[in-house]
Design brief:
alpha+beta; 14-stranded mixed sheet; 20% helix; globular
């Protein structure tokens, strides 16, 4: 009989680079698996409940008050919504928000950008009230002593000297139906209307705000586009129908573009540009005369009652003013290229 003997075939030895590669592939696979598990866990009610408890506990440990949250929805990675937020102190409600929403794009972090798709506040109500001892709710809320606050401010100032690695973009800021109240103790519970705004008894109601923001902190460059700002106050003659415009600030440059202010009785448009100015450095008023300036403004019309609502000294001025203005040159010596004005008839 003939027996076939099996030959012992030696297994090829893996090279050191191959072993290293396999090791990193294995580590990468484990990391991806853990990320998938973590993302999946963040979608659960258990995680949302833990997040809600963590936020309220952390905040309440730092304040003389109580923060409560109704529910948390979404995920912290892309879209997070917090419902029925309430902040109280000493039995008084300082603020409530029916919904806070935050939508981000985490991939943008790889490009050095913090990109917020949506920042939302629905029906926020803020009550800045004073108690019988003359103490405001915000003062009562603070738990830290002045010494601790100063130490933290100095620490933040030192940290702020280092560069910030990200540019900030907020594509949609929406504040819907905001109510704000500021009242001294004597004015609490009242709802008076004033001819001139009273900062001791101020009410702002039905305020809507929509805007976009871009900021480069390292280069002190900021852009704000206000698409809508409207609201009413407890003054008799003033209601802001809409304010919109673009604002740009950076070293050596400041601009207001297409600022349009519409009230019940006025419609004003302003565009202005100031070169050479650095709002991030100490300003000397004497230097203003050398800054190049360009201004374009019109009113169709402007009613003096709107100004009187904020400045009592202008009460002697009455009626509507229609005007158009175009000017340029230096701040201390500019040319009026066009000026037309009409008062009443």
């Amino acid at each position: 009989m003939i027996f076939n003997k099996k030959k012992n075939i030696a297994k090829p030895k893996r090279s050191v680079p191959r072993k290293i590669l396999n090791f990193f592939i294995g580590v990468f696979g484990v990391v991806v698996f853990l990320l998938i598990v973590a993302v999946g866990f963040m979608q659960t009610n258990t995680f949302r409940g833990w997040l809600k408890e963590k936020i309220t506990t952390t905040v309440n440990d730092e304040i003389n008050g109580n923060l409560s949250i109704g529910s948390v929805e979404g995920t912290i990675l892309t879209s997070l919504f917090v419902n029925d937020i309430s902040l109280t102190t000493g039995g008084d409600t300082l603020a409530t928000v029916s919904k806070f929403g935050l939508k981000i794009n985490p991939v943008e972090l790889l490009l050095g950008r913090i990109y917020v798709r949506t920042l939302l506040l629905n029906s926020p109500k803020i009550s800045l009230l004073q108690d019988k001892n003359g103490i405001w709710l915000t003062e009562r809320l603070a738990k830290e002593t002045e010494e601790i606050i100063e130490e933290k401010a100095d620490s933040l100032k030192t940290e702020g000297e280092s560069s910030f690695p990200f540019k900030i973009f907020i594509n949609d800021i929406s504040i819907n139906n905001l109510s704000f109240v500021k009242k001294t103790f004597e004015n609490r519970g009242t709802h008076k209307k004033y001819k001139i705004i009273n900062t001791d008894d101020l009410e702002i109601d039905s305020m809507y705000f929509a805007a976009k923001v871009a900021a480069d902190l390292n280069n002190n460059s900021f852009q704000l586009l206000i698409e809508r700002l409207s609201g009413k106050t407890n003054t008799k003659s003033f209601r802001l129908r809409n304010l919109s415009g673009a604002f740009i600030i950076k070293p050596g440059f400041a601009q207001v573009g297409k600022l349009n202010v519409v009230t019940d009785s006025s419609n004003i448009s302003i565009s202005a540009q100031l070169d050479g100015i650095n709002l991030f450095a100490p300003l000397d008023l004497k230097e203003f005369k050398n800054f190049p300036v360009k201004v374009s403004a019109s009113a169709q019309p402007f009613n003096f009652d709107d100004l009187t609502s904020f400045l009592s000294a202008t009460n002697i001025l009455k009626g509507n003013v229609f005007f158009n203005l175009e000017a340029n040159g230096k701040f201390g010596d500019f040319n009026i290229n066009k000026l037309s004005a009409k008062i009443n008839e």
